[in-house]
């Protein structure tokens, strides 16, 4: 892969050929924390209790069962499942066989799901019984040798059209609960996942045993993970393996709560589990933590969740959510940054820098909206469009590049996407700054930033400013081609129901925050904005529509 | 090195060839924590203040200076220094050149020091001006190309007989404060140190960039190291690089206090620095922390050092020291285990296990005397003399073996010592147990344990029990050969001044704690016990004297 020169020094006497393997994490937990609980909801929604000793035995049984089916080193095994106990067990059973655990995103279209299964060369798919329709939709995938159904009911409860399905628990039941794990070359892929962008087919990332181990330690540092912690992963496990939090928890010997299947429309079980189980670490999106906050506010008995840190790294948590959780439950909503390409956590904004101890509280809340400090062991740099590294002055914006032992250096079998990588750096496509205190703040997507007269205008900053007007429901700012200035901003605005907005009001609102040359050339009031199939704002369509 | 078979899986897309290099740690700290302070005492004992930005610049200057002298990749450079700022800088400047920073133990005999310098093939020695006599004592070492003197005074203050000495600071002063660090193959030796046993010459251990990086992350987990912490290393840096604490601190971006030269006879400056600088992590031996406790007890104004955790891993801290610190200063004295062969921290007893939250306070204090829980990522097993792995029952004793990514797998160029290693495990020579909660407790040295009738009697347990009699000043229990029982215990006892003891009293004291068959066959009252040159009890001599 690498052509760079490298220095070599005196030989060491250390066990440098001891391979970093993910299965050793669970072995450590089972040896030193056998009694530590793994609490989970079964597939009927009932809470059950297990522990590391039991889980280590079940993972052994699972490995015997899978290996008996024919799962072999180098095989890719797709997994369609919720945040279930069995999904956690597969995290260790599959890589322990030197197979690759491929996360299948249950939100993908049938077409994309079939693409992922075929492109990855998956030979097997493990599917939770409740997700059978997704598997049935892709049963024609040519490379699949076998379908493995995960169910808490022997033989399952549901009819399926899948050819020759086998039932995982039934295969496990008579197997030995000990397995002689072989050492695995550490750059072997333990996991894989596919990223979903707004353009093109999902792109595959194969995570090595090494990268997962190092990322887990880095997460310990970032969040002070210890065996006193209790993790409940709320981010779906198919999103970059719930951001690596489960691996960090197992490596530390932390208690784990697996919430199974859940929905933002019914957060009661999640919220009560936070209280009952003493959860101290969690993650997820504002879409689920906002209703949880509402649930706690409406709860008869007040809760004290101080010590709980909830990482929200997908999209920026609103200040109201952060302050709300602190007030209502004493918990910290922690902003951070992660992408599938970065394992994913590479920046986190939890513990305030010592040098900022005297910062005014309001400024600190504002700073908490940034993505935070780089993880120990990750390089982050800000590059201007002409390839100059930018200073950490909080002003000089550029594309954010990442490099390190758990950063992707290529997409699997997608040579046409090679321009996302440069000299070992991953070009994130995000625009951001680093302030003099070292805090990373993302300001825009590179494709959405408006390049005008050699300067950049952040479309997101401008959208947020427009949204300060309570009469505005939605806003989108795009750059449109301009002969003289290269690009000029144009704003699309949707009025809140029962309100009206006009271009002048919008421009007036903006003029207090933006220089005159930055103000949009046009403000267009529309009834709705174009969105992608997963509900994201579709600026690409907006730009092409605008050009017509 | 390894002949074991290894599985290989699907290739990953991660940057698995990104080399773990120690210099990147300092680069991260300088980038994200430029303002974080490095406080140090200069060589006249005055406190000075620097920060990571300044230190990173000075390390660059140092690398230019050393490289200018001719220090090249693969070179071994000995360092004779206190816990000084310059010593910390050398930690990064030397490995950054792909040279090996060789710790020279300033307590070694001239003969052993010369052996270490010659056996390691050191080409250069950096010596603090105050330690010149040590360097002058070994100036005939054939392989040394140059002597480099570290002093805060340009040109130094002291005459020296070293041939053609150069002054490090003088070489640095005109050098650039930026250096283009090259990537170094991660199994290159960044550091080396020599262990001093009671028998034979010191044995060399060469620590790789990889092992140091992984150990640093593991220490973060063990001690929840973050950028909020402030480390003052009290263990000398020539003892396994002050147990890796400085690397962990730099990787986290923690504040660091370098105490320079200090002595147990004058702990005032150390004790006041703990208070003034807000130290939260430290380490060292009871020999220095006992007078620090006495200092705080005698201090006019009481201190609150809650949040401070002091790791004592060399020898077991007395319960009185642990309780005393908690009462006098709110600080935790934390027991742990480390050896030069293990980088060194592989077990630590800091945060109580969740499952022991209901343990009675007295039992918890007793448990705190054990070495604690294995570090995340280290394998520990207890092996009987006939090679059977022992259960974690707190009773089944055996030799303690260690394996992992930062454990030594051989001594440098000492093939005759190969029996200390077995299938990738290091045999520590310690006897211990692991209890059902996973806590490691060392009970004896293998060579000192008494093997009687197929059972083991811990010489240390018996010595401690004898010392419960206040009339006893010192005690040593050895095993002497016995035809029927293999070995039988014999106790040597020294009475406290002004007291008398006799064999019967000793046997009576012991009979409440030991079974009848375990009681010593003979109790010998003597005036003094034989000791080694560094003051350790010399049981080898006691055994040979006893046999006469």
- Name the helicity range of chain A: 25-40%
* Largest interface between protein chains, with number of residues from each side: A-B, 95 and 95 residues
Strand content of chain A: 15-25%
| Class by SSE composition of chain A | alpha/beta
The CATH superfamily label of the largest domain in chain A reads: ANL, N-terminal domain
The count of helical stretches of chain A stands at 16
Largest sheet of chain A: 9 strands, mixed
Beta strands of chain A, count: 26
GO molecular function (chains A, B): ligase activity, forming carbon-sulfur bonds
Family (chains A, B): Belongs to the ATP-dependent AMP-binding enzyme family.
Domain AMP-dependent synthetase/ligase (chains A, B): 27-412
Keywords (chains A, B): Ligase
Question: Can you walk me through this structure?
Answer:
Two copies of one chain form a homodimer. Chain A is an alpha/beta fold and 548 residues long. The first copy, chain A, folds into three domains: 18-217 and 242-261, Rossmann fold (3-Layer(aba) Sandwich), CATH 3.40.50.12780; 277-446, Rossmann fold; 447-547, GMP Synthetase, Chain A, domain 3 (2-Layer Sandwich), CATH 3.30.300. Chain A is 28% helix and 24% strand. Chain A has 16 helices and 26 strands. In chain A, the strands form five sheets. The first copy, chain A, has a nine-stranded mixed sheet. A seven-stranded mixed sheet of chain A has the order 7-6-5-3-4-8-9, with helices on both faces. In chain A, strands 17, 18, 19, 20 and 21 form a five-stranded antiparallel sheet that branches. In chain A, α11 (286-298) links the parallel β12 and β13. In chain A, α1 runs antiparallel to α2, α1 crosses α9 (245-252) and α11 (286-298) packs parallel to α12 (319-329). At the A-B interface, α1, β8, β9, α7 and β16 of A face α1, β8, β9, α7 and β16 of B.
């Amino acid at each position: 892969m690498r052509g760079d020169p490298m220095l070599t020094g005196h030989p060491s006497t250390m066990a440098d050929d001891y391979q970093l393997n993910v299965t050793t994490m669970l072995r450590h937990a089972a040896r030193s924390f056998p009694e530590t609980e793994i609490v989970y909801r079964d597939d009927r929604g009932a809470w059950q209790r297990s522990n590391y000793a039991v889980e280590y035995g079940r993972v052994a049984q699972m490995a015997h069962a899978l290996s008996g089916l024919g799962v072999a080193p180098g095989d890719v095994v797709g997994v369609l499942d919720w945040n279930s106990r069995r999904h956690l067990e597969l995290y260790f059973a599959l890589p322990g066989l030197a197979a690759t655990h491929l996360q299948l995103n249950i939100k993908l279209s049938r077409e994309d799901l079939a693409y992922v299964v075929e492109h990855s060369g998956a030979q097997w798919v493990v599917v939770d019984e409740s997700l059978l329709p997704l598997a049935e939709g892709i049963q024609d995938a040519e490379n699949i040798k076998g379908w493995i159904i995960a169910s808490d009911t022997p033989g399952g409860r549901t009819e399926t059209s899948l050819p020759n399905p086998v039932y995982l628990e039934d295969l496990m039941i008579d197997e030995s609960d000990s397995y002689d794990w072989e050492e695995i070359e550490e750059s072997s892929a333990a996991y894989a996942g596919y990223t979903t962008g707004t353009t093109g087919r999902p792109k595959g990332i194969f995570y090595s045993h090494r990268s997962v181990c190092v990322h887990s330690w880095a997460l310990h540092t970032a969040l002070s993970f210890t065996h006193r912690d209790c993790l409940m992963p709320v981010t779906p496990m198919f999103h970059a393996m719930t951001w690596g939090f489960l691996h960090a928890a197992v490596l530390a010997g932390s208690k784990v709560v697996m919430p199974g299947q859940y929905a933002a429309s019914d957060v009661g079980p999640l919220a009560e589990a936070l209280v009952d189980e003493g959860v101290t670490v969690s993650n997820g999106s504002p879409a689920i933590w906002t209703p949880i906050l509402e649930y706690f506010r409406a709860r008869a008995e007040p809760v004290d969740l101080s010590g709980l840190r909830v990482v929200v790294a997908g999209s920026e948590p609103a200040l109201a959510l952060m302050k709300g959780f602190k007030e209502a439950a004493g918990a910290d909503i922690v902003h951070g940054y992660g992408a599938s390409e970065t394992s994913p956590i590479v920046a986190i904004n939890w513990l305030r820098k010592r040098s900022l101890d005297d910062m005014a509280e309001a400024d600190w809340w504002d700073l908490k909206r940034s993505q935070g400090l780089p993880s120990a062991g990750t390089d982050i740099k800000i590059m201007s469009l002409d390839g100059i590294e930018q200073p950490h002055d909080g002003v000089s914006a550029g594309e954010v590049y990442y490099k390190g032992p758990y950063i992707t250096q290529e997409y699997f079998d997608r040579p046409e996407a090679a321009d996302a990588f440069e000299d070992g750096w991953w070009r994130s496509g995000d625009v951001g700054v680093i302030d003099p205190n070292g805090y990373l703040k993302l300001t825009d997507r590179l494709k959405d930033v408006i390049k005008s007269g050699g300067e950049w205008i952040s479309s997101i900053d401008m959208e947020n400013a427009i949204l300060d007007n309570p009469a505005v429901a939605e806003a989108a700012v795009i750059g449109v081609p301009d002969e003289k200035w290269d690009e000029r901003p144009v704003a699309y605005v949707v009025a809140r129901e029962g309100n009206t907005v006009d271009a002048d009001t919008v421009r007036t609102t903006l003029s207090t925050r933006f220089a005159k040359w930055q103000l949009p050339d046009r403000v267009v009031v529309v009834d709705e904005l174009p969105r992608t199939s997963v509900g994201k704002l579709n600026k690409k369509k907006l730009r092409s529509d605008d050009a017509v």
